C-alpha cells in the first residue's frame, strides 16, 4: 500500500484529483471531505464531516492514519 504525507498541500491535491469520494480515517472514525466546495483548512488543521454522525469536525493532519481517494486507500506517514 502506498504511503503519503498528509498536509495542507496533499489535501488540496486529493480534493482536486478525486472524482467521486474523498475520505480520511483517524484511527477511530471515517470522515468525508466535500469535493465541490472549499473546505476551511490551515497548515495544521482542516474541516471534514463525520460519516457516522454527519457533524463537521476539526481534524489535525498528524492524526490522520489513512486517506481514501475514489476507493483507493493510502496509508499516511
Order of neighbouring strands in the sheet with most strands: 1-7-6-2-3-4-5
Structural class, judged by helices and strands?
A: mainly beta
**How many beta-strand runs?**
7
Which segments are poorly predicted (pLDDT under 50) over 5 or more consecutive residues? none
Specify the number of helices.
1
Number of domains: 1
Report the major sheet: 7 strands, mixed
Kindly estimate the percentage of residues that lie in beta strands according to DSSP.
35-45%
Q: Determine Rg (CA atoms, Å).
A: 11 Å
Distance between the termini: 12 Å
In short:
The protein has 77 residues and is mainly β.
Characterize the structure shown:
This protein is mainly beta and 77 residues long. It has one domain. The chain contains one helix and seven strands. Strands 1-7-6-2-3-4-5 form a seven-stranded mixed sheet, covered by helices on one side. A hairpin with a 2-residue loop joins β6 and β7. It is globular and about 30 Å long. The two termini are 12 Å apart. The relative contact order is 0.31. The mean pLDDT is 92.
Element layout with pairings:
Blueprint lengths: L2 E2 L3 H10 L4 E4 L4 E3 L12 E6 L5 E5 L5 E4 L2 E5 L1
Parallel strand pairs: 1-7
Antiparallel strand pairs: 2-3, 2-6, 3-4, 4-5, 6-7
What labels would you give this structure?
single chain; mainly beta; 1 helix
